[in-house]
């Protein structure tokens, strides 16, 4: 299959590489020359532009930061939907507003292009290992068309509902993750302040009723987990500003449907304060800095 892949960041880079390794002909593109170089060095063909990447593609996959990037890539007179051949399948895996996903899907349908939203969970580790969870919004038939491609990048594929439903599932999940990371950070900081060994405490909680994904795979304290972003200076991973975006999407959605999300609102404010303190580009687990003893 010929696959165009747009957006080669922390997630998109390894996802595109997995499609290449699976034997697909991948034409990749990112606005960042450094991101393109990383993939080129691993044997992936780099296109000169997004428009060139989609020429002759059977499937287009995008993995961009936020709603505005997806909207400006696909919509408008210069947008990619005007350059993609009718009959092509577009899989947008970015985490964006459900309303934007629906808008792009409608614009695609008007041109005979099927667009599904397929945001992911599993972090950069899951992207590298090809074990991501996909939450798909779109028709059952379009999901079945996408399945062989998604299976090369992920281990779990869920049909959340119609267009935009994948995004709604994703922001529910990330609101919970944002809250869990702060709670986990507080608990570790409290134990450390009392002289406990953070590795021992983390293991106790991981195997007890406080166990969660942060303790399993993504410990926020440096040195506890060798491969976690915390042990790599909070580089790579899932940026604080991306988590802040997702918590904002969750709050906008909660207002629209009059849902009560007190901890989600508090979590958004805490990540906002952390970002304002200059940590927006660090992995979101660096939020532990808010509750950790300095020095
Ligand atoms: P990132 O910032 O590392 O990468 C995004 C890439 O998109 C950048 O390389 C940027 O140059 C590129 N880009 C932006 N606009 C573009 C355009 N018009 N054309 C081509 N390239 C363009 O972000 P990421 O961590 O890879 O996250 C991507 C998406 O996945 C976000 O929506 C994020 O919320 C979501 N997500 C991230 C993680 C994670 O752990 N990092 C996990 C799940 C979901």
Largest sheet descriptor: 6 strands, parallel
Which CATH top level class of the largest domain fits? Alpha Beta
| CATH topology grouping of the largest domain | Rossmann fold
- How many helices does DSSP assign? 12
Low-pLDDT residue spans: none
Structural class by SSE content: alpha/beta
**Helix percentage range:** 40-55%
The distinct ligands, each listed once, are: nicotinamide-adenine-dinucleotide
Strand order of the largest sheet: 3-2-1-4-5-6
CATH architecture of the largest domain: 3-Layer(aba) Sandwich
Shape: globular
Look at the structure and give the mean pLDDT: 97
Multimeric state: single chain
What radius of gyration results from the CA coordinates? 19 Å
Would you mind describing this structure in some detail?
This protein is an alpha/beta fold. The chain folds into two domains: 2-162, 3-Layer(aba) Sandwich (Rossmann fold), CATH 3.40.50.720; 168-290, N-(1-d-carboxylethyl)-l-norvaline Dehydrogenase, domain 2 (Orthogonal Bundle), CATH 1.10.1040. Helices cover 47% and strands 14% of the residues. The chain contains twelve helices and nine strands. Helix 1 (12-21) links the parallel strand 1 (2-6) and strand 2. It is globular. The termini are far apart. The model has no long low-confidence stretch (mean pLDDT 97). Nicotinamide-adenine-dinucleotide (NAD) is lined by residues 6-12, 29-32, 35, 50, 63-65, 69, 73, 94-95, 120-121, 123-124, 237-238, 242.
